[in-house]
Amino acid sequence: MKARVARQWSLLVLTNLALGVLGVVPIWLLHYLVRHSLLADMEWVEHNPTENDGWLPLVLVIVPVLSVYVVLWWTLNVQARRARRARTWTVAVLTTLLPTAGLIVVGATGN
Questions:
Q1: Which residue ranges run through the membrane (predicted)?
Q2: Domain residue limits, the chain
Q3: Which residues contact residue 81 at a Cβ distance below 8 angstroms, ignoring those fewer than 6 apart?
Q4: Residue 15: strand, helix, or coil
Q5: How many CB atoms lie within 10 A of CB 80?
Q6: pLDDT tens digits, residue range 29-60?
Q7: Are 72 and 19 in contact (CB under 8 A)?
Q8: Does pTM top 0.90 for this prediction?
Q9: CA dihedral 65, 18, 75, 24 (to 10 degrees)
Q10: What stretch of H or E contains 95?
Q11: Residue 111 gets which letter from DSSP?
């Protein structure tokens, strides 16, 4: 019984780590949208003068990429949720964000 539970949890963690590696691109696209459109329009960050295309090209790229990623992530985790307890979502979200957090740490340290 314990081996089965451990196998299920390890499968959940490995699946979400793999999804996290794929999720670096959608997370970066969301960051780009927020930083260069929303925060720049509120004048919280400096607006790049060469980015004058507006929101349409950005949204046309972000919406399909993010939609496919969210549907894939949700589908795999709903199936995994049926076999586990309530902490499944917490573990799924945290392990999905680990690759992006790792890249942020590596970038911040300059290595």
A1: 12-34, 54-76, 88-108
A2: 17-109
A3: 88, 89
A4: helix
A5: 19
A6: 888 888 877 777 777 877 777 777 777 887 88
A7: yes
A8: no
A9: -30
A10: helix 88-109
A11: -
